[in-house]
Amino acid sequence: MTSLLADAEELGATLALQCKVQGGRVEKGNLVLQVD
Amino acid sequence: MMIQITLPCRLSEHHIQTAVIGAGVIGLSEARALAKDCRHEVLILEQSTSIDSGISSRNSEVSHAGIYYDRDTMPLKSQLCVNGKQMMYNYSRERDIPYKQCGKLLVATDATQRDIGLPQLIEYAYKNGVHDLQLLTKEHIAEYYEPCVKCTGGVLSPSTGIVDSHAFI
After folding, report:
1. Do A12 and B35 lie within an 8 Å CB cutoff?
2. Distances, alpha carbon B58 to alpha carbons A6, B18, B32, B52, in Å
3. Which terminus in chain B has less CB density within 10 A, N or C?
4. What digits encode the pLDDT tens for the residues A3-16?
5. pTM, rounded to two decimals
6. B20 CB-side CA count, 13 A
7. Residue B34 near residue A24, CB atoms below 8 Å
8. Rounded to whole angstroms, how far apart are CA atoms B82 and B86?
9. CB B7 to CB A17 under 8 A?
10. Contact with chain B for residue A23, Cβ under 8 A
């Protein structure tokens, strides 16, 4: 049995737990996220 | 501690290409699709300590047939519901994720629901391409489906089902 997460990770995606996105902004053409 | 993650809009080997916020069913599906179809480098950011603590695994786990949405006023939602139902069944079957296309019985509790509500559901369903609904009398329901239910009539939706959401995500 495989799941969506296993599928995504097998394809190279990475899961980061306990990472709360506090905000974000555009800076010099990039998107900058603030993660707590 | 505050961490800044820079996500460039242009391709670069030194930056995270794509961040997905939230590891629920939508976030994980997006991450999977971006990694698979677009070959993006994907980082999934989840605020909780596990992936199965949010609404994606705190629900009735029903895979809806697509009978509640009016095609005229909610065309995208109705289409996605019908298409998504089949995609979820296919995905679950291919990966041995527990699911059951058990059907659902919707009952009317008064004459108005029976004479107006149920036909309305059937009309919505038909417009959405769901042609398997069966209109049932209260006698039929009592004899063949649920003898204890008190109703004035009902509709059987055979394509409705349930899926193990924890296994799914």
Report:
1. yes
2. 20, 27, 22, 8
3. N
4. 999 999 999 999 99
5. 0.82
6. 25
7. no
8. 7
9. no
10. no
